[in-house]
């Protein structure tokens, strides 16, 4: 890490820990330069970084101040899932969500789709089309089962930003993060095994456990700091857990970034109980802070962490390019990859390698980081405006998902049925739980350009919730029919 | 099927069954026209088809004759695998084979790679590059989890040629045939279950069984007619078999096409014992006969056949586009696909749909059918010339693989170690067996342009075999070193 990045990281951590509260003036450039023994320009560069990641604002002639985070809504409560291993259900609801094709008359707020309309993606589209013009045959061949070396080298370079020193030889390219997670799980667990997960947990992960015949043990999770280490430790003492599967950075759906100290403690726990960690970092590169947060993998000294990620959230999901750094489980993962897909399509690998090599990837990340952060604030404002009072909303520190918690008794499955007729799609909370919890929650995607059409869709969701809360069950149909 | 195609199929079957032996004059155009109540031009078109598929030759002023098939080599024996369920090993040898990257100093005769250098593939490369020039964003999105509708429609149309009436809704696009087979197996079997397979059997299938914790029961197989129905019936009576997995068309590695009557009998057997059939048809479109052979799926009337295929052998493996027609298991397969890869890359799907829609696919098949058939004869000739007397060689009726059986005591694993130093790669026979059989066999790929460089490689393989057969064990090293 460069000097200014290190300094920025230190300051950002202090802000995060509340040492410099919102609105407070930060130390002057001169003070920091003396304190840390670095040049004036290093401090200025560090502050520029912090401005970019919207943690700090410069006020002319006054210096740098901690940016006010508008606390718009109350946070969701710490989750309290069933704390025993369960078999996963909810496949029908997931299928309904993923089977829906984009169509004109439907506002899709439910899926995990990034915005792919920014001009910073253009060089990628160009790279994908490159081959045709030059009659390049490389992309018709299988490449090495581990994936195109050029791409693995670029990923290895990017991983340095998350504190990981991983060589290209230790990486396996996969068909999206789905294959990374699936191969990782099959490498370390058998059917019937118990896997501890953060809760709520990405529905794809849940369904993978279901499909592989494994049981999920959902661990209580804090919407700011992530999986409860205390509850996890108890679970590890009580059950023969084989792996811990979690998303510590820009968690889906809660949006938190687990503090570094907790990441280290989690690793120590895993070592003490000798279990593997499957770390889903698919949103890690679009954390709103810069430099991006470290992974648990970056602390791993005995190869027990399987780091899984992809370009589906940072670039585009249709490319289906992910990767896994499986540590000591490399050979098992290769076997699982071989039997799952043989290898991964060559052309998108070549195109992405090209895109990163020319610096376009980091440029695109910079843009998306700002865009998504702005969208988060705008969408949170809409939720506060249109949803019933008392609605709790997550405060994501990366990614593009809001987790919304409604009144305990509210049923978003029922909400969803009414919304369908009104051309709005959401992700219902229950698919994020193995045991059908979170029926009173929903997840909303704020990645796209937030047009007035989307605002109207959010308004419709809010109004439908209000109607369902107020109207007696029998009267709802007609109340909603009138609105229709 | 058109009238002339139906007539061609009837004649081709009669030739196949030996009713018209090699060299015999076939009925005149006029006779057939009267006999089948079709027009003269229909018969002429039928004969043109049979000429194209090299079953028949026209002799000026004499009529049509059954083409002489040069029986160059003795066929391998009917296989006699261990007839009890076994756990699969041989992963290390498979890994060695698939990890090898194409390189200048290595002649790769071992892998299942088609020839991708024919000009009939050019429109596909163009279609793949199309997007970049037009800034088309479709390929960056996920499509429906079942795959791009346009491609599924084209595949449904192609499937008619194998006698299958399957709608686009009943198809799922997969990441290569690997994912089709893997998802299919996981849809119908659990870990620990027994799956009956033809033997020898594609190593990818074997490794999939291994990876999924299933047991293989290898059934004796005839190099001309395929899996022994008698042995299979005994096995079904004796063991709790859950599925039959086989490649009845252009079998890999043996090259046979199972006769239609046997396909029907196999289906009846499966129905009687209520087991699923997983049918690998990945080489079916490059059978040397036209129209192409029917699938078992085409007889399926209760949805128990899961038909798996891909464009990896007909077009190019680096595209990673396959499909499955899972019959009654559609929803289970969708779940397995979702957890395995989420969905399949969009761009290659769009490009292939475009390629088929414009008629390029069938044109490419026509070319490859002729090319591979010519290569088969040439390669068989080289084997006969350079390999020891008594070598048995398969007579493939499609695809691009030769199966070669050497002296019972011969060890191709040992051969392989010597060949590596000489820059030649083969596929050793033992990876095609769950129980380590076929150590005296090897598989050779004859897809590429058969240059003198390849002939020299085949010669080196033959000579190394001869040395290993003749030289006393201790003397081999030096004998080979001198040759080196």
TrEMBL record, chains A, B:
Top-level taxon of the source organism: Bacteria
GO molecular function, one term: DNA binding
The entry's keywords: Aminotransferase, DNA-binding, Pyridoxal phosphate, Transcription, Transcription regulation, Transferase
Domain HTH gntR-type: 1-69
Membrane listed as a keyword: no
InterPro entries: Aminotransferase_I/II_large, HTH_trans_reg/aminotransferase, PyrdxlP-dep_Trfase, PyrdxlP-dep_Trfase_major, PyrdxlP-dep_Trfase_small, Tscrpt_reg_HTH_GntR, WH-like_DNA-bd_sf, WH_DNA-bd_sf
PANTHER family linked: HTH-TYPE TRANSCRIPTIONAL REGULATORY PROTEIN GABR, TRANSCRIPTIONAL REGULATORY PROTEIN
Family: In the C-terminal section; belongs to the class-I pyridoxal-phosphate-dependent aminotransferase family.
Name by which UniProt lists this protein: PLP-dependent aminotransferase family protein
């Amino acid at each position: 890490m460069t000097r200014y990045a290190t300094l920025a990281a230190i300051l950002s951590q202090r802000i995060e820990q509340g040492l410099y509260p919102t609105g407070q003036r930060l130390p002057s450039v001169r003070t920091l330069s003396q304190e840390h023994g670095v040049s004036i320009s290093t401090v200025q560069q560090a502050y520029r970084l912090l401005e970019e990641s919207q943690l700090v604002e410069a006020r002319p002639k006054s210096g740098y101040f901690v940016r006010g985070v508008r606390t718009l809504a109350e946070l969701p409560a710490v989750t309290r899932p069933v704390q025993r291993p369960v078999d996963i259900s909810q496949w029908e609801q997931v299928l309904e969500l993923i089977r829906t094709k984009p169509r004109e008359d439907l506002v899709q707020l439910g899926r995990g789709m990034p915005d792919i309309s920014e001009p910073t993606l253009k060089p990628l589209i160009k790279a994908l089309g490159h081959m045709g013009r030059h009659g390049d045959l490389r992309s018709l061949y299988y490449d090495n089962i581990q994936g195109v070396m050029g791409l693995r080298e670029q990923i290895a370079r990017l991983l340095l930003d998350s504190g990981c020193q991983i060589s290209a030889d230790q990486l396996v390219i996969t068909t999206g993060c789905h294959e990374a997670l699936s191969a990782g799980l099959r490498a370390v667990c058998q059917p019937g095994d118990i896997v501890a997960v953060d809760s709520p947990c990405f529905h794809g992960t849940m369904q993978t456990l279901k499909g592989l015949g494994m049981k999920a043990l959902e661990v209580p999770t804090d919407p700011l700091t992530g999986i409860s280490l205390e509850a996890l430790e108890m679970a590890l003492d009580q059950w023969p857990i084989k792996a811990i599967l979690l998303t510590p950075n820009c968690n889906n759906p809660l949006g938190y970034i687990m503090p570094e100290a907790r990441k280290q403690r989690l690793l120590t726990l895993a070592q003490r109980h000798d279990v593997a960690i499957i770390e889903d970092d698919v949103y890690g590169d679009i954390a709103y802070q810069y430099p991006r947060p470290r992974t648990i993998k970056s602390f791993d000294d005995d190869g027990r962490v399987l780091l899984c990620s992809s370009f589906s959230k940072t670039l585009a999901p249709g490319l289906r390019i992910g990767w896994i750094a499986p540590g000591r489980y490399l050979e098992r993962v290769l076997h699982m990859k071989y039997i799952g897909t043989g290898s991964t399509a060559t052309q998108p690998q070549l195109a992405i390698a090209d895109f990163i090599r020319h610096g376009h990837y980091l440029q695109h990340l910079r843009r998306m980081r700002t865009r998504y952060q702005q969208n988060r604030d705008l969408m949170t404002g809409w939720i506060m405006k249109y949803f019933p009072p008392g609605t709790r909303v997550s405060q994501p520190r990366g990614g593009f998902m809001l987790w919304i918690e409604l009144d305990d008794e509210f049923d978003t499955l029922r909400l969803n049925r009414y919304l369908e007729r009104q051309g709005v799609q959401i992700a219902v909370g229950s698919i994020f739980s193995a045991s059908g919890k979170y029926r009173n929650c929903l997840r909303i995607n704020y990645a796209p350009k937030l047009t007035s059409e989307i605002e109207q869709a959010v308004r419709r969701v809010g109004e439908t919730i209000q109607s369902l809360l107020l109207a007696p069950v029998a009267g709802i149909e007609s109340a909603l029919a009138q609105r229709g």
